[in-house]
């Protein structure tokens, strides 16, 4: 009788342990899924600041090309978010990096329309000095909105500098390095877009069609 009780107790403990482990695993899975969902929603919100949802007819997150353009975009790998309208390219949002900020790299999203003009620029992350360099954030100042509608023709390419360097873009009092880094990075994205957007869109269509045929 005593042996049976021990066996039963052992089985019950094993079952409780198995149930507990399963519950922990399910909770972790659900938590990871929720975190990823929240991350995707935050990204989509940021992208739609640059490409409004009503200006395109595709899902920006449905197919995300990745390019290796370290010299031009400042990152070993950059995600691209292509917006289309009526089966034509409307704009591309590039992940880019200003590598020479005052306190390190500055992560950016840069939207370029098919005509080569900027849909906008947003700072994703940085470590610039609070009260000085952090004016690159939209919530701190509207400086970043000055990029809207700009292109390599407006202003001319040789004017894509801060005013202190003889260009057209404002710098901040006591913080020239930060805006200089962003202006340079955005100019580089515009050049890359002009040279590669047609091929990027062709590859995007090809991969989308391949995905549908599977």
UniProtKB/TrEMBL annotation:
Cofactor requirement: FMN
GO BP terms: electron transport chain
All residue ranges annotated as the FMN-binding domain in the record: 101-193
Membrane topology: Single-pass membrane protein
Modified residues (FMN phosphoryl threonine): 176
EC number: 7.-.-.-
Keywords, in A-Z order: Cell inner membrane, Cell membrane, Electron transport, Flavoprotein, FMN, Membrane, Phosphoprotein, Translocase, Transmembrane, Transmembrane helix, Transport
TM annotation in the entry: none
Single GO term (MF): FMN binding
InterPro entries in UniProt: FMN-bd, Ion_transpt_RnfG/RsxG
Enzyme class, spelled out: translocase
Annotated localization: Cell inner membrane
Gene Ontology, cellular component aspect: plasma membrane
Biological role: Part of a membrane-bound complex that couples electron transfer with translocation of ions across the membrane.
PANTHER family: ION-TRANSLOCATING OXIDOREDUCTASE COMPLEX SUBUNIT G
Homology family: Belongs to the RnfG family.
Quaternary structure, from the entry: The complex is composed of six subunits: RnfA, RnfB, RnfC, RnfD, RnfE and RnfG.
Name listed for the protein in its UniProt record: Ion-translocating oxidoreductase complex subunit G
Species this protein is from: Solemya velum gill symbiont
Phylogenetic lineage: Bacteria, Pseudomonadati, Pseudomonadota, Gammaproteobacteria, sulfur-oxidizing symbionts
Gene (UniProt): rnfG1
